[in-house]
Amino acid sequence: MKQTLEKYQIIIYLVLVIMIMAVIKVKYGATEENSKDKTQSPLITPTVEELKPTSPAATPTIDPKDDYPLWRLLPYSGEGFVVDKYTAPMTLEMTITTATSQDASKAVKEWINSFPEIKRQHKIIIINQSLNPTHPAAAGSPLP
Cα(119)–Cα(113) distance, rounded to whole angstroms? Predict the structure, then answer.
């Protein structure tokens, strides 16, 4: 008997663990009522009342068509650079990989000027990936 217990020691231990888990599941297990409540919890969504401004000063002044006129055309890429996103209204971020900042800036300005419906000047922030990351231009310097 002692040899049998030693031989099947792991199997006996696993059977005990399974039995304990079954008892816990029966005692604390989910019923149909509890499982429906947990799986179909309502999502919190803002209502129209929550989004109404409380005063005229709180009214947003950003117009996507005027402040982000090129967002549907992004990313725009050229040889050695890519303009992939707006960082603020009328502010584009240009990442330079192999081109010079002057050549890339000139190409981006020409691209922007090819749209006569854009009435305001864009600001371009340059991220230079070819520089050392500690260099100030690598962190993003605005284009004059």
Answer: 10
